TrEMBL record:
Domain Phosphotyrosine protein phosphatase I intervals: 1-145
Organism whose genome encodes this protein: Thermoanaerobacter pseudethanolicus (strain ATCC 33223 / 39E) (Clostridium thermohydrosulfuricum)
Family indicated by similarity: Belongs to the low molecular weight phosphotyrosine protein phosphatase family.
Protein name per UniProt: Arsenate reductase
Residues forming the catalytic site: 7, 13, 119
Signal peptide residue numbers: none
UniProt-listed SMART domains: LMWPc
A GO term, aspect molecular function: protein tyrosine phosphatase activity
Keywords, alphabetical: Hydrolase, Protein phosphatase
Amino acid sequence: MKVLFVCTGNSCRSPMAEGLFNDKAKAFGKDFEAKSAGVFAPEGFPASQEAIEVLKQDYNIDISNHRSKSLRRQDLEEADLILAMSNSHKQSILSKYPEYSHKVFTIKEFVGLQGEVEDPYGMPIEVYRQTARELDNLISKIITKISEGREKR
């Protein structure tokens, strides 16, 4: 199962989600893998310092090797599930690639919740901590949901 997390610049939310997801999947012994991309991401930039710091300090997850990448058709083809941080990201994907609509959701929509994961970019580190906690909670729900879906097959 390949999951793709999508945000704007691929420097805060989606790299944190990718790191948290891969760590949790490994801990649960699941054969799941996450990647991330941004709808308006420059190529090759590291995750924000705050995102790196929060994941390292609070979760012992190292995303310092992350490099931003722009969303490509190939990413969408390879992913089994595409989870956008906001409705605008989802709409951006669907406007360019409507053929993938069956596997594109907002991260909250996928687990039956309303709303979006707010962008911490440029905010104090405590906002990044709140975002990481929110993502951590959502990712637990996502892993449970996709695990249950696989067991039903």
